[in-house]
Amino acid sequence: MSSREAGGVGMKEIQRVAVVGAGTMGRQIALQCARHGFPVALYDVMAEVLQEAEGWQRQTVAAWIESGDLAVADEAGVFDRIQHEAQLPNALAGVDLAIEAVPERIALKRDVFAQLDRLLPDNGIIATNSSSIRVSALEDATGRPERVANLHFYLPVWDSPMVEIGGGSCTLPEVLNALTIFARAISLVPLRVRKESAGFVFNRVWRAVKKEVMRVADSGVASIEDIDRAWMIKFGRSKPPPFAQMDRIGLDVICDIELRYAAESGDPEDRPRSILTDRVERGDLGLKTGRGFYQYPDPAWQRADFLDPDAGGVDSS
Questions:
Q1: Nearest 10 degrees: CA dihedral of 192, 159, 42, 102?
Q2: pTM for this model (two decimals)
Q3: How far is CA 255 from CA 45, 51, 153, in A?
Q4: Tens digit of each residue's pLDDT (9 = 90 or more) over 89-113
Q5: Closest CA to 15 of 181, 191, 188
């Protein structure tokens, strides 16, 4: 059995992929697939988002080549395998796996799932990249609930090489096996979610971290910068600390996720804090808008003197 063969009788191996949504996550998933030999169609309803995604992908590949992470000779092949598509029927033609990567709003995802079900070949798998929504809340928007699953990636995909794989109320084991083999084929560690849970595996932990750091800052206990300083001093500065990480994900995305958790739990304490919602209302969404918890392109947390002893105690700007 090859690395791409799907387990299970009657399960077609995953050979061709479509990613629906060319935002921060979708463009990365598509690039990871193409880099590892899979033809992939990247679709978005907005032509300007598709154009921006392609430009970003080319910059990323150029950076890989410059760092020696990718051979110059492989660049053309990567982009030959990516189809940037503004028409959904074209994107889904002949596809074995469609990965939905649209904003974290259940009504929108259900609408997308219904479209995918109508257009995808009968044996195609529909997967959601949702970071908080159980697939059982989406599966009945399709006529193929047994072929629907969660397939949750992390940012940046190549620097956080794992993907969470979970089923709904009637997902076939063969589908989960096929997705596990696919994950390995694109150099990601498959994490099997054995029981449906909002937030799955890592995000259950990450949710507790982001909720608490926002509560500490919002209640005036400490500044955003000092909370991030404490994190970096304790765990190192090779990865973004919590507030910087939320900026990278997008504060609108974070807010949608927090609202989803609150809706599921019914606990008012789970609703997003004003330190987040005020920024979203202003349009300060993080890295993608140039301002969030930090200002870009030169955020304070990346400066050489951020962890100097004289830097602590500075109020948020």
A1: 60
A2: 0.77
A3: 22, 26, 18
A4: 999 999 999 999 998 889 999 999 9
A5: 181
